[in-house]
Amino acid sequence: MGSPDGGIREGTSSKPVGHGTYSGRVSAADETYLDLALSRSRVDRWAQVRTDEAELGQIIRRDSTRVLELRADTVPVDPTSMRLVLRPPRPEDLDREPWFLGRDEGVDYVAVVASAEGVPEAAGSAAQPRWAGLREVGADLDDRDAGLLTAATALRGWHDRHGYCPRCGAPTVVTQGGWVRSCPVDGSEHHPRTDPAVIMAVTDPQDRLLLATGLPWPDGRVSVLAGFVEAGESLEAAVAREVLEEVGVVVTDLVYRGNQPWPFPASLMVAYRARTADTELRVQESELRSAAWYSRAELASGLREGRLTLPSRVSIAHRLIQEWFGQSLPGHGPAVPR
Ligand SMILES: [Zn+2]
């Protein structure tokens, strides 16, 4: 990754030397992605409140507080304004282990998990909220609501999967406004996990883009390559390793582009551009159904004719592809509402 001021940092040689290593050039563009759908939050997390039991108790009783209710993986959204439908606290929220999401313009926001029963199947009307998830509506929400729903979705994914102490196996309890799970047996505290993953737009000497179809995907669904960062691995080494493993090409000239949380359930996607001098692909069949180089004209015609589909515009993958393409992609709106 580039230095914090966005300057260029160079490695010691121009080529990576093998699996799991990258010693080539890494740079950061002058401007990275700052308006990604799920990175736009303007809510102050106000972390000092999390350890203030008295204040937390007041917040969940205060009429001015706004509550985001989660049912299964969905929240209520006003289908006309595309804003979250938030409500004042109710007495039953006290028993629902409310999570403190933060404060914005003097209003405190909390999330509670309610029973999944009662989620209407039909699309919402003006009078009835539509129950929808972050993947579905994340790109259409405003900055406040995108931030609230991204944090709530991330907490949901973590609480659902981390009910037991990793040290002693005892059931843990929710503390600090939902941001810690504490073990009552050994006193250990456990924090929400974030698992970094790299995602990369790789181009060949003709500036064609590498797009691939993952094993479980439907025909024609294509995206850029991505993969989890392994334990003890740098971001750049992960980019080089994933591309080499999945399609057999060696990358150079990494450029850091930006990052966004992807809480399905706990990823942080870190995006790069990369180049390769190799055009021959050796597709690893245990990971991918297919992979190929696409010119802009080939991608555009595939999208217009319905032969190809891309990840939705809430994803950083979409932004990487759109940046290479140079304009809005056929059949897709702008990446974020503006
Ligand atoms: Zn324990």
What does this protein look like?
With 338 residues, this protein is of the alpha+beta class. The chain folds into two domains: 26-31 and 194-325, Nucleoside Triphosphate Pyrophosphohydrolase; 47-161. The chain is 18% helix and 26% strand. The chain has six helices and 16 strands. The strands form five sheets. Strands 1-14-15-11-13 form a five-stranded mixed sheet, sandwiched between helices. Strands 2-6-5 form a three-stranded mixed sheet, with helices on one face. A hairpin with a 2-residue loop joins strand 5 and strand 6 (107-114). The longest helix is centred in the middle third of the chain and has 19 residues, at 143-161. The protein is globular. The two termini are 29 Å apart. Zinc ion (ZN) binds next to loops.
What descriptive keywords fit this protein?
18% helix; alpha+beta; 338 residues; 3-stranded mixed beta sheet; disordered N terminus; Nucleoside Triphosphate Pyrophosphohydrolase; binds zinc ion
The general outline is globular
List low-confidence stretches.
Answer: 1-17
- The percent of residues in helical segments reads 10-25%
The largest sheet, given as strand count, sense and whether it forms a barrel, is: 5 strands, mixed
- Give the bound compounds: zinc ion
In CATH terms, what is the architecture of the largest domain?
Answer: Alpha-Beta Complex
